[in-house]
Amino acid sequence: MHRIVNVVGVGGSSRPGSTAEQALRIVLDAAQRRGASVQLIAGPALAMPMYDPRQGTTTPQARRLLAAVSGADGLVLASPAYHGGISGLVKNALDHVEELREGPRPYFSERAVGCVAVANGWQGAASTLAALRDVTHALRGWPTPLGAAINTSTTRFSPAGDCKDDRVQAQLEEIAAQIVDFATRRVLAETPTESLR
Ligand SMILES: Cc1cc2nc3c(=O)[nH]c(=O)nc-3n(C[C@H](O)[C@H](O)[C@H](O)COP(=O)(O)O)c2cc1C
């Protein structure tokens, strides 16, 4: 047997239960149904001072984020579109990942990263999804083949957090499948053959 893979979701907005956070939770729930353990870092947990390379990691929130990313086998990022791009809250949290440059797996390297953008229109959703995928590349991660661009003017979430659009729900579940599949392959590749017998 190989160990359980661990998927970490990072994103949302300062509003707990934001649309981006709801989408993130759907991906994490789907990953859990596929056997992964999951961890969510969203809302107030993302509130940290502007990243300053001279200061490094100065807050419990930043330390928790870095510990979670270090221990992740796969990741999901979700951001609302703010003026056509990643929100400052999410981008600042991702800037803190610079502190992982010296680790055995620097930044997001060797990990699949699902990206989800939420906006009030298609243009912002598409540009923000592309930006999240660019950041993933810059952090040496492997963007999953499928990302999700969600237009909240046409896609609704219920108060309980379910997505009312079956197609978007299916996309979010497919992103989870791609993350868990990639993570499981890597974990199997590092598992000694004798322990798989
Ligand atoms: C400061 C700010 C800037 C925004 N800029 C855009 C934008 O450029 N394009 C767009 O489609 N929506 C924009 N929106 C709308 C949000 O992306 C949209 O409402 C999203 O669904 C909110 O997600 P949340 O529920 O996760 O906060 C903006 C909202 C705010 C507060």
From TrEMBL:
<dbReference type="GO" id="GO:0016491">
    <property type="term" value="F:oxidoreductase activity"/>
</dbReference>
<dbReference type="InterPro" id="IPR005025">
    <property type="entry name" value="FMN_Rdtase-like_dom"/>
</dbReference>
<feature type="domain" description="NADPH-dependent FMN reductase-like">
    <location>
        <begin position="6"/>
        <end position="146"/>
    </location>
</feature>
<dbReference type="InterPro" id="IPR029039">
    <property type="entry name" value="Flavoprotein-like_sf"/>
</dbReference>
<dbReference type="InterPro" id="IPR050712">
    <property type="entry name" value="NAD(P)H-dep_reductase"/>
</dbReference>
<dbReference type="Pfam" id="PF03358">
    <property type="entry name" value="FMN_red"/>
</dbReference>
<protein>
    <submittedName>
        <fullName>NADPH-dependent FMN reductase</fullName>
        <ecNumber>1.-.-.-</ecNumber>
    </submittedName>
</protein>
<keyword id="KW-0560">Oxidoreductase</keyword>
